TrEMBL record, chain A:
Any one GO molecular function term: oxidoreductase activity
Keywords carried by this UniProt record: Flavoprotein, FMN, Oxidoreductase
Record protein name field: FMN reductase
InterPro entries membership: CE1759_FMN_reduct, Flavoprotein-like_sf, FMN_Rdtase-like_dom, NAD(P)H-dep_FMN_reductase
Name of a matching Pfam family: FMN_red
Protein's organism: Agromyces ramosus
Domain NADPH-dependent FMN reductase-like: 22-172
From TrEMBL, chain B:
PANTHER family in the cross-refs: BLR5498 PROTEIN, LUCIFERASE-LIKE MONOOXYGENASE
GO molecular function (one): monooxygenase activity
The protein, known as: Putative FMN-dependent luciferase-like monooxygenase
Ranges for region Disordered: 352-409
Domain Luciferase-like stretches: 15-307
Highest taxon of source: Bacteria
Keywords: Monooxygenase, Oxidoreductase
Gene3D superfamilies named in the record: Luciferase-like domain
Length: 241, 409
């Protein structure tokens, strides 16, 4: 079962429990159909089902990086995103959970995927539960998720779920892939339901480095958000350190 | 009154328009020709003179300490320009407040203010060149703290005859007098330039100084949150309403009589320039404050700045860089001064809310301090034999704040 391929799909009505969970899929697959996208979709559907069963309706948005490739490259050299890339960044900023899925090229994650991450604010995904997934042409690339995606999301201070998903051609014929998808989706759903990531980000926010007026949901954007009790702010107001 | 300042063109409810340059050199992509440093320095002087002749209000120079930029010593070059110009205000964009000793800045810019007869203000900032810190013996990890502490000291050096001071980044001062005292004992007006740091905007607001956002190389209105932050804090510190805060904006322009000629002429310079390589000119024109087009197009885009940021006091354009030949740069200055700015002056004045202040000038600051009285002219006390003037450096120094320094051996 897959979710509809509509990139801004399917807001599910809110129930009394609160706002729907916002799940965002990032796929760096570039073919159509793409196994990278397929892996992400199957996982997203499983996560939605689990969250629904737990009384947490969930909306899904998909960011297909292929269509953003030129804007991502432009942003790398210009230092700022184009309009569609900015919309994707804002979507990610508001995500309660992320499924990141990339093909393996030349023994590593897709350069397009890495370039996309390179233009994100460092604090965009602090505490956000992330499910890591990759596809490859051979099972010999199985460690790429843990060796490359996991440290990347560690740098972003995201919360990668314990189970990494990897699918080589053989895996698509095996029911164990479905089991692993279910396990990883369960971990993601439990993390989201616990609220631990959001709680971590909210509670420890001031301990991370931020850029004023950045894209992160908690970013300082006005006087009301700024802490004036820091050493630097005292120095700015004529005081000493 | 003892000071003279030809200031006749600037009337109430007008704002200041000018140009700012980093004095960059690059090969001309259409000819391959690279200006020598000697040529670029001479050309900067010609550009400043032309800006003065066509009625622009400000020429600002951005301090750099590395090739391919020539302005390592803005006070020297600006002093020369001051001698060759009549009305234009000289400024910086920026003066590095991090790696320069604030004591030397106080002296250099006070001297420049004197020789320029008050046609001087300056913009302090951190700059964007990482290795400058070690070149001048500073630690970049302390960049913001250096900027804040150094300005706090500079502020006092220009306002107190005798300064006792201790901070984290330089030796303490005991009984120090920065000479010469500012012209008419009125310090140059200071702008604080920052593109991302609320602490810098906070310092500008605390002192009631100006805040400048370079407004280039970033999406349209990217700097609005910081400008709004500065306005709110300016009001918080009691300097006036948030609309009265002194805001300056940059911008980048290339002008031709016909729009398509501007784009065609500018495109190779944009596309070959290192920081724009791989970027799309059309995207930059649409998404950033860069204006490339007819005078009317530049006017229309600049008017959006007033709409988006609120009424502001100073608009500077970057238009002499990117390897443009000096003849083209001079023509840009001329088109800006004759075709664009006169219209902008009138349009922006017409749209301006009543009561919004002008950018301070030396004349307005002198009037604010002294009214119709004569400005103070500090006269030193005599050398007491050890190259010091004793406890009171000037005949009229405040007797309540005498200098205390170690006795000479």
């Amino acid at each position: 079962m897959t979710i509809p391929p509509n990139p801004t799909s399917d807001p599910i009505e809110t129930n009394a429990a609160g706002a729907p969970v916002r799940l965002v899929v990032v796929s760096a697959g570039v073919s159509d159909p793409s196994t990278t996208r397929l892996l992400a979709d199957r996982t997203a559907q499983k996560a939605i089902d689990l969250l629904r069963e737990a009384g947490r309706p969930t909306t899904v948005n998909v960011i297909e990086l292929g269509g953003l490739a030129v804007e991502i490259a432009q942003a790398i050299v210009s230092g700022f995103p184009g309009a569609r890339l900015q919309a994707a960044i804002e979507l990610l900023a508001g995500a309660d959970a992320v499924i990141a899925s990339t093909p393996v090229y030349k023994a590593g994650i897709s350069g397009l995927f890495k370039s996309f991450v390179d233009v994100l604010d460092n604090d965009l995904l602090i505490g956000t539960p992330v499910l890591l997934a990759a596809t490859a042409g051979t099972p010999r690339h199985a460690m790429v998720v843990d060796e490359q995606l996991r440290p990347l999301f560690a740098f972003l201070r995201a919360l990668p779920v314990p189970t990494s998903l990897f699918a080589a051609p053989d895996d698509w014929g095996s029911s164990t892939l479905g089991d692993r998808i279910a396990r990883a989706a369960t971990e993601l759903a439990v993390l989201v339901r616990s609220g631990v990531g959001a709680s971590m980000a909210d509670t420890a926010w001031s301990g991370y480095r931020h850029q004023f007026s950045g894209n992160a949901t908690n970013a300082e954007r006005s006087v009301a958000d700024v802490d004036f009790s820091t050493d630097l702010m005292r120095l700015a107001a004529g005081g000493s350190r | 009154m003892l000071f003279t300042l030809s200031n006749d063109r600037r009337k109430a409810d007008t704002m200041q328009f000018g140009i700012f340059s980093v004095g960059d050199i690059a090969p001309d992509p259409t000819t391959g020709y690279t200006q020598s440093e000697a040529e670029r320095i001479s050309n900067l002087v010609r550009i400043a003179q032309r800006a003065d002749e066509v009625g622009l209000d400000v020429f600002a120079l951005g301090e750099h300490h590395n090739p391919p930029f020539v302005p390592s010593s803005p006070p020297t070059l600006l002093a020369h320009i001051a001698a060759l110009t009549k009305r234009i205000i000289l400024s910086t964009s920026v003066t590095l407040i991090t790696t320069n000793d604030p004591v030397k800045l106080a002296e250099d810019y006070a001297m420049l203010q004197h020789v320029a007869k008050g046609r001087l203000d300056l913009m302090v900032g951190r700059g964007n060149t990482v290795p400058v810190y070690p070149w001048f013996g500073k630690d970049i990890r302390q960049g913001v703290a250096l900027a804040l502490e150094n300005y706090n000291l500079l502020h006092r050096l220009w306002r107190e005859d005798v300064v006792d001071w201790e901070g984290s980044f330089r030796t303490p001062l005991q009984g120090f007098t920065s000479t010469p005292r500012p012209l008419d004992d009125v310090p140059p007006f200071v702008w604080h330039g920052s593109i991302r740091t609320p602490e810098i905007a906070e310092q500008a607001a605390y002192y009631g100084n100006g805040y400048f956002a370079n407004n280039v190389l970033a999406p349209n209105f990217h700097f609005k949150p910081l400008v709004d932050f500065y306005r709110d804090r300016f009001e918080h510190y009691g300097h006036g309403r948030r609309e009265d805060a002194i805001v300056g904006l940059g911008g980048q322009a290339f002008i031709a009589k016909r729009s398509q000629d501007a784009v065609a002429a500018f495109r190779p310079y944009f596309e070959e320039y290192p920081i724009f390589r791989g970027s799309s000119l059309d995207d930059y024109m649409a998404r950033t404050p860069l204006s490339v087009g007819s005078p009317q197009e530049v006017i229309d885009k600049t008017l959006t700045f007033q709409e988006g940021f609120g009424d502001y006091q100073r608009q500077l354009f970057s238009l002499d860089g990117l390897a443009l030949p000096v003849e083209v740069a001079l023509e840009q200055v001329e088109l800006l001064g004759t075709e664009v700015v006169p219209v902008l002056r009138a349009e922006m004045a017409a749209r301006r809310a009543p009561g919004v202040p002008d950018a301070p000038t030396h004349a307005s600051l002198v009037t604010a301090k002294y009214g119709d009285a004569d400005p103070r002219q500090p006269r030193p006390n005599p050398n007491r034999g050890d190259n010091l003037s004793g406890a009171s450096p000037y005949q009229d120094s405040d007797p309540d704040s005498p200098a205390r320094f170690p006795l000479a051996a």
